[in-house]
């Protein structure tokens, strides 16, 4: 097993990785910005190094500062968490070139899946279903219009290098496409340094279902079930659950087989997620993207399958076998994750501030992965995620009931937060029925 680990991230995911590292007897090193110096993950690490000011470009995305911290602390490996440098192939290559262990997939896999058009083409060649769309970038507006005409409106206009729900717009007709194309391209150039645009069929009523995969040290790729991620605002997830209430055993088998093929197509190692869109009317699903990292919503898979995915990541990186039998994976019960964000519960606009009260719920089937405690300041420099409230039950009905109780018992005062939204959602007939799609939040508002 790895002996010392530098966590190149912050907040709840850094704290969560550190927790597993310490349980395994692995020395945990945290890096932090000046703004995060008093957060729990810094305090709980065995050693902590400040790598720069609040601006992420000067701290959490500062490759040389992070590598210098690894060298000065004698860290053997680097875990990037999610976001920041987690899907940066050049960073992964540099980490390994410096003689450190990279806790993640190979740089070639990151590169292959980082461009949505290239990823679509690879998946299609591997027999993974993909939605009708372009096989090369729409280099100008005329090319975009021609592609959309062939595909059929409405279409989704996407930044090929984008991710996390950013750089996407829907065009219902040519006039809308002419407006949205330039917006998406400009956004992509500004945010990702790559203005390539993909045109793809848009499905008005669709569910977002993803599969957790793990590429093992012996070369096998295994799938640990699916997660339903259809409760979203601005194409970004708010709630995840496993198993999906929309997926039958027959459909699940197809999902998992396709996800394994996707991983095998790029020689995948370590944890990753194959994201898909499911048309509930036809039961057809289409590859959306592969996230070459640990997902925010990984706890629901951990609780349903009884595994610690961070431990499994460390074992793969160290060349060790998994703690579980890949041929005998058995899900148990139902898990739901709610992303508690520092944002108002109506418009979902960020609301940073000083946390005056922070009381986490407890009880059977309740887990809280948090990044803050009372007295901490939620700054405007980073993602608004405060904590992940995860509940389990013997079935979905019990998990929902426990979630209601847990939301009512989660006390946060200071920054704005979306707990009132979750209280509303958990009583919403559409959500409770399980028959919902990615438009549910819009219908609630």
TrEMBL record:
<dbReference type="InterPro" id="IPR016185">
    <property type="entry name" value="PreATP-grasp_dom_sf"/>
</dbReference>
<keyword id="KW-0547">Nucleotide-binding</keyword>
<dbReference type="InterPro" id="IPR050856">
    <property type="entry name" value="Biotin_carboxylase_complex"/>
</dbReference>
<dbReference type="InterPro" id="IPR011054">
    <property type="entry name" value="Rudment_hybrid_motif"/>
</dbReference>
<dbReference type="InterPro" id="IPR005482">
    <property type="entry name" value="Biotin_COase_C"/>
</dbReference>
<keyword id="KW-0092">Biotin</keyword>
<dbReference type="Pfam" id="PF00289">
    <property type="entry name" value="Biotin_carb_N"/>
</dbReference>
<dbReference type="InterPro" id="IPR005479">
    <property type="entry name" value="CPAse_ATP-bd"/>
</dbReference>
<feature type="domain" description="Biotin carboxylation">
    <location>
        <begin position="1"/>
        <end position="445"/>
    </location>
</feature>
<dbReference type="Pfam" id="PF02785">
    <property type="entry name" value="Biotin_carb_C"/>
</dbReference>
<protein>
    <recommendedName>
        <fullName>biotin carboxylase</fullName>
        <ecNumber>6.3.4.14</ecNumber>
    </recommendedName>
</protein>
<keyword id="KW-0067">ATP-binding</keyword>
<keyword id="KW-0436">Ligase</keyword>
<dbReference type="Pfam" id="PF02786">
    <property type="entry name" value="CPSase_L_D2"/>
</dbReference>
<dbReference type="InterPro" id="IPR005481">
    <property type="entry name" value="BC-like_N"/>
</dbReference>
<dbReference type="InterPro" id="IPR011764">
    <property type="entry name" value="Biotin_carboxylation_dom"/>
</dbReference>
<dbReference type="InterPro" id="IPR011761">
    <property type="entry name" value="ATP-grasp"/>
</dbReference>
<feature type="domain" description="ATP-grasp">
    <location>
        <begin position="120"/>
        <end position="318"/>
    </location>
</feature>
């Amino acid at each position: 097993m790895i002996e010392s680990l530098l966590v190149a991230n912050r907040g709840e995911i850094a704290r969560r990785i550190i927790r597993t590292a310490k349980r395994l007897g692995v020395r945990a090193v945290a890096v932090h910005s000046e703004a995060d110096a008093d957060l729990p993950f810094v305090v709980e690490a065995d050693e902590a190094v400040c790598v720069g000011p609040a601006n992420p470009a000067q701290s959490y995305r500062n490759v040389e500062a992070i590598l210098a911290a690894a060298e000065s602390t004698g860290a053997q490996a680097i875990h990037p968490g999610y976001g920041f440098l987690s899907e940066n192939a050049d960073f992964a290559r540099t980490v390994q070139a410096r003689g450190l262990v990279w806790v993640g997939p190979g740089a070639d896999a990151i590169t292959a899946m980082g461009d949505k058009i290239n990823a679509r083409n690879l998946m299609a060649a591997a027999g993974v279903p993909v939605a009708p769309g372009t096989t090369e970038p729409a280099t100008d507006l005329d090319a975009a219009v021609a592609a959309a005409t062939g595909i059929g409106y409405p279409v989704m206009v996407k930044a090929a290098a984008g991710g996390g729900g950013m750089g996407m717009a829907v065009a219902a007709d040519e006039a809308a496409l002419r407006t949205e194309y330039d917006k998406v391209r400009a956004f992509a150039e500004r945010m990702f340094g790559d203005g390539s645009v993909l045109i793809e069929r848009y499905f008005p009523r669709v569910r977002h279902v993803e599969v957790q995969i793990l590429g093992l040290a012996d070369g096998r790729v295994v799938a640990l079930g699916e997660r339903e991620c259809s409760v979203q605002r601005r194409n970004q997830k708010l709630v995840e659950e496993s198993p999906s209430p929309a997926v039958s055993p027959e459909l699940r088998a197809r999902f998992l087989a396709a996800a394994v093929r996707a991983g095998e197509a790029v020689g995948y190692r370590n944890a990753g997620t194959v994201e898909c869109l499911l048309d509930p009317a036809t039961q057809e699903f289409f590859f959306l993207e592969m996230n070459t990292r640990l997902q925010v919503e990984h706890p629901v898979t951990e609780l349903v399958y009884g595994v610690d995915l961070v431990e499994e990541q460390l074992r793969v990186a160290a060349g060790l076998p998994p703690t579980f039998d890949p041929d005998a994976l058995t899900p148990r019960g139902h898990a739901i994750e709610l992303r508690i964000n520092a944002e108002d519960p109506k418009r979902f606009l960020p609301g940073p501030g000083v946390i005056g009260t922070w009381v986490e719920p407890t009880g059977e089937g309740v887990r809280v992965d948090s990044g803050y405690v009372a007295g901490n300041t939620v700054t405007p420099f980073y993602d608004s995620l405060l904590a992940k409230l995860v509940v389990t039950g013997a079935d979905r009905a019990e998990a929902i009931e426990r979630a209601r109780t847990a939301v009512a018992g989660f006390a946060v005062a200071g920054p704005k937060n979306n707990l009132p939204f979750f209280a509303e959602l958990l009583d919403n007939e559409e959500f409770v029925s399980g028959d919902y799609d990615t438009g549910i939040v819009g219908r609630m508002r």
